[in-house]
Amino acid sequence: MSTRTRTPRRATSRRPALRRRAAGKRAARKNKALLAGAVLGPAIVAGSLLTAPQAAAHGAPMVPGSRTYLCWKDGLTQTGQIIPNNPACAAAVAQSGTSSLYNWFAVLRSDGEGRTEGFIPDGELCSGGAVVYDFSGYDLARNDWPVTHLTAGADIEFRYNKWAAHPGTFRTYITKDSWSPTRPLAWSDLEAQPFYSATDPPSVGSPGNENAYYHWNARLPSGKSGRHIIYTVWERSDSRETFYSCSDVVFDGGNGEVTGVGPGNGDPTDPPTDPPTDPPDTPGMVCTAAFRSVNSWGGGYQGEVTVTNTGTLPINGWMAHITLPSGQTIGSLWNGTYTQSGSDLTVTNAGWNGALGVGQSTTFGFTVNTSGAAAGLDPHCMTT
């Protein structure tokens, strides 16, 4: 798989996994199938003619849905709480906690640089070897993950959520016929070449919600049958940040139906029989971040970021990620703690401003050392 290998660098140490039990009572409603985002088809739909400007990066595949995205859909309730129904999703949450689903769009490595084999360890492909959040539960080798039903050799429209947006390239791989869902995914389980790549594809919607996504049309590999994983790598061209994801699919003549989501869904691998319905469109724990320039001088500038709880549940902590222009460094920062690696700046709440009720906001400020003028930064926020 030399085409995917780059010069290895030592990965940062992983924070200890936070293990919790999934809480709450499972809902009683019945629902056997979910159409994840859209019905797939051979033609370019009207939405694919719309192009949004390149803006700001967090996201995950929606069609075919990634494990984190479909598990979020599976467990989302009217209140915004996440109570898993699917047994694989419940096992993942028991291992990684519900933060892994409130931040379903954050399976990333800030230092990824598009690297794959030799950088992300075998058995950790679905979690991307993530170090900011614990996504290790989504590496579990199981055959009951939510699954998207597809037809080998068909043309489909891929959709990839843009919770935040950035230019870059999406590479999609497929597992070999020898792969088995009963063992953790390794690089040797993937075909050596991506079956499709898309660079700076068109997008629709405004970042920061489920209805904003990139989309492109591609032909699925022919000759495939049964269970497989479509593995997607999103490599940003304006940063080292790289996103990794596993989408469980079954080639059985389907047209994009999703099973294994919601209570009472039966065997996730069964072909869909009932009309799909969506769970409530409730964001749960969500935060946003907005930047403003306060002052500037010859050697730098002062900025301020406002963090707002825009969800439907209180949050107990937040983390803001900012990509600084090349060469800029933080001089000082207050009302939060930060780490900087190259252009990537990560700010977490201080002890006194992490808890935010619905609609509440807080701010943190900082100074930047630079020879240029104040920059228009585009921070994005995650709950912790």
From TrEMBL:
GO-annotated biological processes: carbohydrate metabolic process
Listed name of the protein: Chitin-binding protein
Molecular functions (GO terms): hydrolase activity, hydrolyzing O-glycosyl compounds; monooxygenase activity; polysaccharide binding
UniProt keyword annotations, A-Z: Monooxygenase, Oxidoreductase, Signal
Residue ranges of domain CBM2 in the record: 280-384
The keyword Oxidoreductase is annotated on this UniProt entry: yes
Bias kind Pro residues: ranges: 269-282
CDD domains, per the entry: LPMO_AA10
Location of region: Disordered: 1-26, 254-282
InterPro entries from the UniProt entry: CBD2 (IPR001919), CBM2/CBM3_carb-bd_dom_sf (IPR008965), CBM2_carb-bd_dom_sf (IPR012291), Cellulose/chitin-bd_N (IPR004302), GlcNAc_Chitin_IntDeg (IPR051024), Ig_E-set (IPR014756)
The keyword Signal appears for this protein: yes
Origin superkingdom: Bacteria
Annotated Gly residues bias: 254-265
